[in-house]
Automatic annotation (TrEMBL):
Integrase zinc-binding domain segment(s): 127-177
Name of the protein described by the UniProt record: Integrase zinc-binding domain-containing protein
Superkingdom of source: Eukaryota
Pfam (any one): Integrase_H2C2
Amino acid sequence: MILIKQELIKSEIIKDNKQDDDNEGTVRTQSDKSENSKNLNNLCLNLEDIQKGKNAIIHFVQHQYFEDEFMKLRSGFPVKCSSKLHKLDPFIDTHGILRVGGRLRQSDLPDEMKHPIILLKTCNISHLIVRDIHRKIGHLGKNSILTHLRERYWIIGANAIIKSIVSKCVVCRKYQSPIIQQKMADLPSDRVTPDMPPFTAVGIGYFGPFEIRQRRCSVKRYGVIFTCLKMRAILRNCKFVRYRLMY
């Protein structure tokens, strides 16, 4: 009976992954179906149940794609040089999950960051993981998604998945859409009339106020710029002149 139930669980993982776009929902669904659940009618899952469900999904998916690598490592031999995992120095952890080896065993980083879980881009669970990270970090760019992804997972061919998900994301399309430039109006006649002396037609730019300290009190100061509409020259006057605005 247990063997039949295990096969039903394995066969339903792929169905749930194809129909569910939420990675957490898929893990919770698998946790409900796991044989370790004491009460199948109890919908309240703790953190341990969710972690067991995630490990069961990853364990099953890895055995689908890396069966030869599992056999080699369990026999005490390294993986073949022709394998996709040869450069990753893979090993099997205590939960039976395939992880990246590397040279960070003595570091103070968490184990999930030192030895990420190995997955392939072709399995559907990889798409769910990338889509979930993309949503949680606020639809940031490709490099940000890859950085957060490498904290727990090492997906072979992750750039292709990230590029596909970002290109199909409606929110990212809005963020990355080009800014629409308003069509400029025709130039005024003062700017296109030839043989005009400088500053015949003048534009005035007025800005302020700026609060400055003068002795023991604060005063407001304004600025004004006179520019020639024909030559785009700016009038420079070093004298301090007080202007009184008349309305």
